[in-house]
Amino acid sequence: MRGLIKGDNVFVPTAVLRVAVRNDIDVAALLVTERGRVRGDADIVFDGAPVHPSGAVRLSDGGDGGEDGTVWVDADLTGVEQEISRVLVVASTEGGALRDVRDLSVRVLGPDGTTVVGYEVTEAGGETAMVLAELYRRAGGWKFRAVGQGYLDGLVGLAADHGVDVAEEAAEAPPEDSPAEAEAAEAETRTPEAPQVPVPAQAPVPTPLPAPAKLQVPSRTPDPVPYAYPPVAQGPSGWTFGAVFEPRTLSGPGNAVLDVEDLPPGPVMVELTLKTDGYTGVWTLGPENKEMDLLVNSTEQDFRGRLLHVVPETGRLRMKLRADGPWQARVLPLAAAQLLTEETMESWGPNVLLHTGGPTDVAFHYRGSSNFIVDSYDLAGHDDPTTLPDSLRPYINQIGRRRESLSLPEGPVLVHLLRAAGPWRARLKQPSAATAWLRRARR
């Protein structure tokens, strides 16, 4: 074996070579043109896309699950496309610097399994990403170079140097409203709340209440409500979190206490529709009828939405409703949550949505004039169906018409629109290979 130092190069066979990188580090390969840039996301080979479309470059753990800390880049130099002049072998860390990686090295094995050339990386410092080595065309054949070029700004800097386009936000943004849509959105939000400031998701700013009115016990027989909540698809078949039960329906003409007994303890949704030109407020009530969490604080016309609430161990749900008009409420299991997909979902008001796929982003287009607050709950591994885990960070907390995105881990995840007194759109964004590769650098 010929050992190289940084900057050295040597010819290698134009054959199927195996490049071994160790020790316990994230590895990728970039196929670049003569200009030193990838042609697109497909030229990034990493653990999320381990095979190049040409089949010439593959990433593997060598068949042993990577237990010895080695990652293999298999390169069939006879099959590399003519447009590609170099295959870069890239390493990065999720935490710490490359100088902390022990025995970081690269070696190339020929078709017979013998080592052709090797490179012990001894020059690493505070960088978190590095082009370790490259296979490149020269004089009708291929050479191997020990590169050792590190990046203090990590994969982001390395990607920028090699033409990786990660500016997907503009391309992924929903189209702007047409004049008719904008006019309709303004009409829907023509009764704005007083100016507000962003507030923590668990501590919204209350609006002064109207003069107290005598609370009324809701009837068990639903009265007609002028606005019917749009029909929504049920959750994915077979998915449940918490108990599944028949919806409970209440209705009334105005201010009321919502009181539902014999519910299974745990998170539920309360779907509320209201015909009003005035104020709508909803609070949870504690054991002594004390107002607890403020769930709705709106002056929007004809309020509707789905609220997230956790039923206590007593199985009794109690809420205080301020309603200047007839209303209807339905208590629903979480299994009835709307499923997020890559198709655009259009709705109004607070809601509870479900994500069941892999890590991704959800894009929102909010067209209201008041607070827009969205948080989420990772249910993976959460085994207690009577509680919710702590909400994830970061979350969205903005005011007025916005386009925002929220990163989601692998599902199941509940996406909770806590404040959204206005129309909105939502859809999952399919992350590009570049985005998926770089996401680890942003953790």
Query: Uncertain spans, ≥5 residues at pLDDT below 50?
Result: 168-237
How does the major sheet shape up? 6 strands, mixed
Net shape: elongated
- The gyration radius over C-alpha positions equals 28 Å
Q: How many E-type strands?
A: 29
- Strand % is 35-45%
Number of helices: 4
Which structural class do the helices and strands define? mainly beta
- Mean pLDDT level: 83
Termini Cα gap = 39 Å
Give the proportion of residues in helices. Answer: under 10%
Q: How many discrete structural domains?
A: 2
User: Widest sheet: strand order?
Assistant: 1-10-9-3-7-6
Q: Gist?
A:
By secondary structure, the chain is mainly beta. The protein has 4 helices and 29 strands.
Q: How would you describe this structure in keywords?
A:
Lipoxygenase-1, 2 domains, elongated, 6-stranded antiparallel beta sheet, 41% strand, 6-stranded mixed beta sheet
